[in-house]
Design goal:
Radius of gyration of chain A: 21 Å
Order of helices and strands of chain B: EHEHHEEHEHEEHH
Number of domains of chain A: 1
Shape of chain A: globular
CATH topology of chain A: TIM Barrel
Number of domains of chain B: 1
Largest sheet of chain A: 9 strands, parallel
Shape of chain B: globular
Helix content of chain B: 40-55%
CATH architecture of chain A: Alpha-Beta Barrel
Number of helices of chain A: 12
Helix content of chain A: 40-55%
Strand content of chain A: 5-15%
Distance between the termini of chain A: 40 Å
CATH class of chain B: Alpha Beta
Oligomer: heterodimer
């Protein structure tokens, strides 16, 4: 099964139509309501960004996700992204293991470097070490979730002697990890090395570029012996705005596009729809475009959409409804057609636990046979 | 006989443009000199004037779209480069700089490059040495010693033609004598993760 969901950077915005400025409280509560609505309409995943500067609100992802966990039952809670560069890996290990217990395993996370240069020193780091931090910190995090007692020494934090991160991961199964990167081959390589997932933001970028990153990850996933290239775990982003009539969608979305902190004063909405995956139109157009992603990068595991680019809450909720009611049911059906049986589903706590148990039984059998 | 690709970047704005005229003559001289050496030149001209909007879009979106994409590829993979700008306010034009701003920083590394500029007065002739050379030094292009500046009054002189011929022969000589440096593609040949993880 493929997973479908939404992700939000959590930006406070000013409505270009009304001039109304959203409060931080509004945006935080809105993110909670978005997640709840996503579950109600049958989506699988909600992922929050992590930012430490205005106009963004989600500086504390596990607080937000813990609160959402208490109000949902099925939704997988994730991040887009968790800052592996400026956060202490010890704290990430503990925060997300804690969240895993509270959410009954409905947790995974996406590592990213994120951040602009000024953010790093707020956390005692330097952006010039960004890649090294992403590599070293994750290596420690990976061990902290898998080894009960860790001795460790690295370049970027104080050494650890006989340290145990608490609580231990739920059922001894660490949360699944995706690595997100737009343009660094080193991060695709990292994801492949560990056999973790690779997520490409996809939005803002031409598909040829996304293909190169995913292609590298898939080849190296096979190289490192985790499975065939088409069994690697891939996720993509997407950005959509939908109305029954395409021209209504374009007309309503344009003011938000034209004042967006990403898109404003650059290529027009029409050009951007041609060169990047942004799709503003009918649900049918979104379905067709999204199915096209598979032609570009192969069968994949997770598709997340971003919807709240400055849009007011009522419109964002409508978009979630359309996704859940009209788009995703068709995508589930269509993506299942022609999907080879050996292509894995998106990993969940349940599937990882079953795999761990199977591996354990296998090891016991071998041991017994040896005796 | 080897085929050599020659990318010609012209930042001229008028029609006809003296910058484009100089660029064409430099390309022609280089192609002739290559022929004398038994090679054939395939010339691709990049007119920056028509790419102005795409260039500004690239600054905002982060990637080249439309015709700019082809232009970036033509220059990035060329065996030789001829780059000609009008002198504006004692330096290369903003349009010229913007094109080189959006290239990957190693796009023209080691590429034999001939610099040219045009201006209304000979007083700006050193703009090539004081403004263009540092830019191409940063990009680690193999900039040729001979550069060509054409002021309005030079167009009637035989000296300009001589200098164009000399510059073309020099560039052709560098192109034919050059073994292109291997540029490993980080997507085709990734750095193995162990060497990232356990580096000292």
């Amino acid at each position: 099964m493929m997973q479908f969901g939404i992700f939000s950077v959590g930006q406070v915005s000013t409505d270009p139509a009304t001039g109304r400025v959203q409060s931080e409280r509004d945006k935080i509560r809105m993110m909670v309501r978005m997640a709840r609505r996503a579950e109600e309409v049958g989506l699988d995943v909600f992922a929050t960004g992590e930012h430490h500067n205005p106009p963004f609100v989600p500086s504390s992802p596990t607080t937000l996700l813990g609160y959402i966990a208490a109000q949902t039952e099925r939704l997988v809670l994730s991040t887009a992204t968790t800052l592996i560069t400026t956060n202490d890996p010890v704290k990430i290990a503990e925060d997300y293991a804690m969240l895993q217990h509270l959410a009954e395993g409905r947790v995974d996370l996406m590592m990213g470097r994120g951040n602009t240069a000024p953010v790093y020193p707020w956390f005692g780091k330097d952006i010039r070490d960004g890649l090294d931090l992403a590599i070293e910190n994750y290596h420690l995090l990976h061990r902290l979730w898998r080894e009960d007692v860790v001795d460790w020494k690295g370049q970027h934090r104080t050494p650890l002697q006989g340290f145990t991160a608490t609580p231990r991961p739920l059922d001894g199964v660490p949360p699944f990890v995706w690595h997100g990167s737009i343009r660094s081959p080193e991060i695709a390589e990292q994801a492949a090395y560990y056999g973790d997932g690779f997520f490409h933001n996809n939005i803002f970028w031409p598909m040829e570029h996304v293909q190169r990153m995913v292609g590298l990850y898939r080849r190296r996933y096979e190289h490192y012996g985790h499975g065939a290239a088409d069994q690697a775990i891939v996720g993509l982003g997407g950005q959509v705005y939908m109305r029954p009539k395409a021209e209504d969608a374009i007309r309503e979305f344009r003011p938000y596009f034209d004042t967006s902190y990403v898109y404003a004063n650059g290529p027009s909405l029409e050009e951007t729809m041609k060169t990047t995956p942004l799709t503003v139109g009918t649900p049918e157009q979104v379905i067709e475009r999204t199915l096209g992603f598979r032609d570009a990068i192969g069968d994949y595991q997770r598709q997340l959409f971003t919807l709240d680019l400055g849009l007011p809450e009522e419109q964002v909720m409508e978009q979630i409804d359309i996704l859940g009611e009209e788009v995703v049911p068709v995508l589930r059906k269509e993506f299942a057609i022609g999907r080879p049986a050996h292509v894995p589903d998106a990993p969940t706590h349940g599937s990882l636990l079953a795999a761990a148990k199977a591996a354990g039984t296998e090891a016991e059998k071998k041991e017994e046979a040896a005796r | 006989m080897t085929t050599r690709s020659l990318a010609v970047v012209s930042a001229g704005l008028r029609e006809p443009s003296s910058t484009r005229m100089l660029a064409d003559r430099l390309a022609q001289a280089t192609a002739e000199a290559l022929r004398e050496r038994g090679d054939e030149a395939v010339v691709e001209v990049v007119e920056l004037r028509v790419l102005g909007h795409d260039l500004v879009n690239n600054l905002i979106s982060g990637f080249p779209a439309g015709e700019l994409k082809g232009a970036v590829e033509a220059v990035s993979g060329a065996d030789g480069l001829i780059a000609v700008t009008p002198v504006f306010q004692a330096s290369y034009s903003g349009l010229f700089k913007t094109f080189f701003d959006v290239l990957d920083k190693d796009a023209i590394e080691d590429t034999p490059t001939l610099l040219g500029a045009t201006g209304g007065t000979p007083r700006h002739s050193l703009a090539i040495d004081f403004a263009m050379r540092p830019l191409f030094a940063y990009l680690r292009a193999a900039t040729q010693p001979t550069v060509v500046y054409a002021a309005t009054e030079d167009w009637g002189s035989g000296e300009l033609a001589d200098r164009i011929g000399k510059a073309g022969r020099e560039l052709a000589g560098t192109i034919t004598g050059r073994v292109p440096a291997a540029k490993p593609d980080p997507f085709d040949e990734p750095v193995p993760f162990e060497s990232l993880l356990f580096k000292e």
